[in-house]
Design brief:
261 residues, seven-stranded mixed β-sheet, alpha/beta, 33% helix
Amino acid sequence: MRRRIFLASVVGALAGEAVVRTLHAAQASDNPEGRGSAGPGIALAADDIAAFPAPPAGFDEQRPGIARGSVAEFSYASAVTGTQRKARVYLPPGFSEKQRYPVLYLLHGIGGNQDEWRGYVRANIILDNLLADGAMVPMIVVMPNGRALADDRVPPSEKTFTPEHIAGFAQFERDLLESLVPAIDGAYPTLAERGKRAIAGLSMGGGQALNFGLGHLDAFAWVGGFSSAPIRGRAPSCCPIQLVRRAACNCCIFLAARRMA
C-alpha cells in the first residue's frame, strides 16, 4: 500500500508547501508567481478561504539526527537547443548504484529555474523528512530548467511573458522526452518504465506537467498539477475531456494511469 501512494504523499507535501509559499509571496509582493517573475497581482478579499491547510510546523526544516539525501548538478546534451543544459537531481539517503529507483520530474513556475524547488520550497529537505517519517519510498527527483532555450536563464521581468520566452516552455516537451529522460535513465539506476515515472509541477510547471504527462501516458503513469497554468492548444486525445477541464480550472489532480506496485 505504501508503495502505491508514495507519489501522492510526495507531490501532496511539495504542493502544499509550494501553494502556501506562493500565496504568501503574492500577499507580500503583489506577485502571483513568487520570486523572479512579473505579472498582475493577486487581490485577496477578506472572505477568501485558504484551499489548503497550513503544512505541519517544521516539515520543511532540517531535522537533526535523520539521514539526508544529496542534490547533484546534472548536465545533458539537448537535441532541441543544441546546448548542454543543467538540472538538479535529488538522490535519497543511502543512494546505491545497486538499487533501482522510481523517478519524479518536478517542474518549476515561469520565473524559476532548476534551483527553484531546492532554494524556494526546500524540496530536498521535505523529501528527507518524508523519508524519515516512512511516508515515501526512496526515489530520484529531477528538477530541470523548464525553458528549452539556448539561453535558458531567467529573463528580465519585462520579458517574462514574451512569446519567445513562453515558447521555451512549450519546447521543453521535446527536450524532456527526447533528451532529459533518456539521459537520466542512462546516468542513474532508474526503474526506466512508465509505471515508475512521474511528472508534476507548479504554475507554469503544472501546465507543462498536465500537457506533457497527459499527452504521453506511455511515458508517465503519474501526473500532478497544482496551481497549474491554463492548458493551451488541443486537449490530449487520450484523456476524458472532463478531466482536462478540471485541470484547466487549476484543480489539483493526481492520476494513476497504472498502479505503481
